[in-house]
Amino acid sequence: MSNVGSYLWLIPALPLLAAARIAFLGPRGLRPSSDWPCVAAIGVSCLLSFWVLFAVGGLPPMGEGDGHMKPEQEIVAAHPWVHVGNMDLGFTLRADGLTAIMLVTVTFVGFFIAVYSIGYMRDDPGYPRFFAEVSLFIAAMTLLVLADNFLVLYAGWEGVGLCSYLLIGFWFQKPSAADAARKAFLVTRLGDMGLLLGIILLWVKSGSLDYDRVFEAMKAPGMDSYYVAAACLLLLCGAVGKSAQFPLHVWLPDAMEGPSPVSALIHAATMVTAGVYLVARCTPLFVLVPGVQLVVALIGCFTALLGALIALTQNDLKRVLAYSTISQLGYMFLGLGSGAVVAGIFHLFTHAFFKALLFLAAGSVMHAMGGVIDLRRFSGLRKLMPWTGATFLMGALALSGFPGFSGFWSKDEIMAGTLERSEAPGPYAAWYLLLFVVALVTAGLTAFYTFRAYLLTFEGPEKVPEEAGHHAHESPRVMTVPLVVLAAGAVLVGFMEPLTHVFSDLLRQHTAGISELSPQRPDYTVMAVTTLFALAGIAGAVYVYRLRVGLADRLARAAPALYQLSLNKFGFDEMYQTFVVKPLDGFAEFCRVFDLYVLDKIVDIVGMIPRLFGALFRPVQNGLVQFYALAMILGLTVFLLALVSKLNP
Amino acid sequence: MNPIPLHHYLVVGAILFALGAIGFLARRNLIVMFLSAEMMLQGVAVNLVAFARYRGNLQGQAFTLFILTVAACEAAIALALILMLFRRRGSLDVSLWQELREPGQEPTVDEEPLPPPPKEEPLPELTPSGFEPPAREETSHV
Question: Rounded to whole angstroms, what are the CA distances from A602 to A607, A613, A615?
């Protein structure tokens, strides 16, 4: 097991190879079978990731009794890369507990989503392109989490951004998809700029880019805490962009223009959690500045509430899920900001399962309904699509935090962490209490909108839009099997932490001496209160959408302003349009005019000067042979006179 | 024998050169201009030969031979060119050829027109006299 380090590079390399193979051979030879290199590469990467996990955690692979292996804690595979002056930068891969969890999440969920895509993308003309881009994405994402220094992380970070752009715009013939891809790219770019600046600041201040050395240097007593806070805020800026947190959350709902497996893989399970990973990875920095931690928690909590409020009224099933993703990512940030790193990462892990499941189930619905995804156009699909309906219900229960399901355990830990932080002696305790209350309300809202989506889709009288045609039946086996696997995950993975504390164990080295706040045993009071809110939400949804049909419309009419506010996503898009896009457009127009009438004129004047000189001498070139001859003779005369006067002074 | 001193030769060469230069600048007939240029060349050749004799070596003479060769080639080419130019414009006036000036530059026009070409004196006609020789009827066979 000790030699797993020498195979570490294979985890990103295999999907990369698969991507290259599909990209070069796919369109010609491989066409209908371009799925298997992708699936095989991700599968092998997944097995390797489990190996890494066992090696890092020291868990017995299979029933070795109580013989816990000695945990390795950290596997490092260093490859020299850049060596300039006194800067020594390695292409170093490092796997510790945090990385191992992320690796397993990404490759395991990614594997099943790739399998699902075999069925979902079957008839698409861009079949090879899809799998090439998915492979490339997995390669970039695994590189991101395996990085041991900020530069390699940044490479992976940009790689996933690129793949996200490509896959959102997968159906680039649709103008809305092309626009959404551009929007996603530009908005996340804002955050990436912050990340880059943060990395540069850390490098300038610590002289290194390796995580450990940066953290050591920033912890040193001589370091000005102002710089630490600035670096943390800049890193947070990158994380906010990537993880679609307020105020950069606007790109994620539009990203649903991509194919459903992409929404599941990139915009629910993996890429959007890169920001959470970054903040978790940099926990040693964030704990140095409690103020920034509070900012993280505030952003997270506000985003969670905002996402939940918007999700209440959306009519597009995938958009409901997108806002729910934003909201759940907000929970993760809340956990990280409260110092409950274990809870945050645990929620990331469970969320990857149940949200990927929900997206895949929504994709299955979309597949059957002939591309229609509007909640008002179909209902009562449970009979038609029993597997999809049942697995969606599992995902919905997990997302709402129904007791026993995975979302329940992880969300509860975040709540408990927030509450504990508010009770712990420390600055900003009152703030954390407020955040706890908001998070509770959000939990109720989450349950409500999740079940609204479920009830409107799968319950009630059977209604199928005419676009569905003969498609209106359960999806093929290759799509339902991943659904069932992920549903099993959504139910079961939640027990991992409360029963075995495997996450705490894995992250102990990472959080050593930093966070004693993560609750080691469940807090039953918090659990009861959260459950109460979740159940209330579910009951509310059942009451409004099942027992009193029509009540929802009456509620909407009773408070039209509130309803419109939520339906229009609180007008963020319009606000950005007015306050960011329009002024920038104006500025661009100003620049254009300035360039045209000021800069161009200056350039013209510079060009005029030699032209004027030329005009002085132009008459000399009159084309008369004898004039030229005269000039030559005069020149010769002058030269001879000068020579003579020089020789006989 | 009293050798002629060097400067005499040089003066002859300079006079030839100056005459050629003046002719080149003053005349507008292409052929005359060409002849003037040749004259300048000969002035130079005289200088070279004179120095060769003065120094007592053969370099100047060898050089002069080259100059003569080149001048012969040049003459062939120049006359061919002049012939072509004459065919196009029907005149040997060099001021008809001003195309190689700067764009936008007005062509130079004579302020006063050229004097009309001198009227050709008719050749004196002699009254035929004597007999017209009879055409030969036999051709000699060799």
Answer: 9, 18, 20
The full set of domain ranges for chain B reads 6-91
Do residue A624 and residue B108 have CB atoms under 8 angstroms apart?
Answer: yes
Cβ(A134)–Cβ(A38) under 8 Å?
A: yes
CA–CA gap between residue A330 and residue A303 (Å, rounded):
5
The count of CB pairs under 8 A between chains A and B is: 39
**Assigned token pair, A11:** 């985890």
Which of left, alpha, beta for A63 (phi over 0: left; psi -120 to 50: alpha)? left
pLDDT of residue A595: 92
pLDDT score at B125:
82
Across the interface, whether the CB atoms of B105 and A625 are under 8 A apart is answered no
Could you tell me the fold of the domain covering B6-91? Helix Hairpins (1.10.287)
Calpha distance A252→A140 (Å, rounded): 19
Per-residue pLDDT tens over the stretch A74-130: 677 777 777 777 777 778 888 888 888 888 888 998 898 888 888 888 777 888 888
Of B100, B101, B109, which Cα lies nearest the Cα of A619?
A: B101
Q: Are A270 and A106 in contact (CB under 8 A)?
A: yes
Residue A97's contacts (CB-CB under 8 Å, 6 or more residues apart) are A56, A57, A73, A505, A506, A507, A508, A509, A510
Q: From the centroid of its chain, how far is CA A355?
A: 14
Rounded distance, CA A185 to CA B63, Å?
78
Query: In b/e form, how buried is each residue of A65-76, taking b as 16+ CB within 10 angstroms?
Result: eeeeeebbbbbe
The answer to whether the CB of A320 falls within 8 A of the CB of A362 is no
Listed in sequence order, the residues at least 6 apart from A355 whose beta carbon sits closer than 8 Å to its beta carbon are A264, A268, A269, A321, A324, A325, A328, A395, A399
The C-alpha atoms of residue A257 and residue A177 are separated, in whole angstroms, by 5
Alpha helices in A220-368 (DSSP H): 225-242, 251-254, 260-264, 274-281, 283-286, 290-311, 317-337, 341-368
Task: Find which of B102, B105, B106, B108 to mutate to test the A interface (most A CBs within 10 Å of its CB).
Answer: B102
Residues A238, A189: Cα–Cα separation, whole Å: 8
Does the pLDDT of residue A29 top 60, yes or no? yes
Q: What is the ipTM of this complex?
A: 0.78
Q: Please indicate if any CB of chain A lies within 8 Å of the CB of B103.
A: no
- Tell me the average pLDDT across A356-384: 83
Residue A624, φ and ψ in degrees, nearest 5: -90, 120
Query: Strand A80-84 to strand A87-90: parallel, antiparallel, or no bridges (unpaired)?
Result: antiparallel
pTM of the model: 0.74
Q: How far is Cα A605 from Cα A607, in angstroms, rounded to an integer?
A: 5
